[in-house]
Give the backbone structure.
Amino acid sequence: MTTLKVSAAVPAVSMALAACSGDDGEPGPKGDTGATGATGATGATGAAGEGIEKVGYFQGTISGKKTSGTDFSETFKLEYGPSSQAFDEAAGTKWLTLYRYNAFYYYTSQMEVSSLQLSGNNLVVVPDMSYVSFIYTKETSTTDLFRVVATPYFKDRESYVVRLSEDQNATYNFLTAEGNIYYNTGSWNNNGSYVSAYVFYDKDYKYGLYYSMTDGSLLGYYDQTTALQVTSSTVFNLYNKLTFKNNASLNTLTFYDKGTKNSLHTIVPATPADQFTVSNYVHDATTGNLSFDYTMKISKYRSKTGGNYGSNSTGNDLVISGSFNSGGKVYKNIVSRTSSGS
């Protein structure tokens, strides 16, 4: 067959191969694993990361009374923040925002001081601009955490009536706004007859609760999950312990205990502005490092649950004092080129 021309041999060879091809044999045994290769050269160092890193600190002591009335004093040091920061400037006024966390990612404690004004050689609070937030968390056992959440309010506040005390609302879980029970008005469908009502919500928005504008009694609630009106259930029985009607002595609406007929309101007295003061301010012109001492005092009359009028989860007067150190540059000026590049 070797004397045949190639062009003529192609089909013949193909046929021969097809005819001579047998069944595949069983796979052979697996070979031994080869030796581990040599370790490669160390890669080049990556560029420095941006964002949160361990730098500087907010540190200090938080002291007051727990909600139980027990005295406490705890120290803290928050060391995670931005690698560098800078003053903002508007209309010739410089503002500074600083923050630190207790961890890089899953932080449980933090302190943020926002929009402090540079006045002379110090930082000061401006009531309509400045904001301070503080969260402290400590594990006290395998099942318990001690937590303080506090936000000072930097304006005097007049006395006001809380429709249902915060202690009472721990049972009922009504939605709140600005430290008071939130409600609006609506109509309850009573078999086709509509009854005017005050409408409340629980904090999880599971229920819309309707109290009669006529006698303050609970008409029923709207279940957001089932889209049904309910007038008999465990939930109904709980909220049916209350009525909501005018308090003649206060000339405002408050909740009453349906059984005792006693109003469940509280009165928050006129409260002076909370304080955040800075001392020993130093902004090093050579290194750019910034440091100061601070004292923050927050009234026991701030809401335990928060809002635009401050918060204090302990329900008691609170003092937080300590120091800040940037641990890096805080730029006093940010200079930008014009669009022409000049």
Notes: The mean pLDDT is 87. Helices lie at 6-20, 166-172, 234-239.
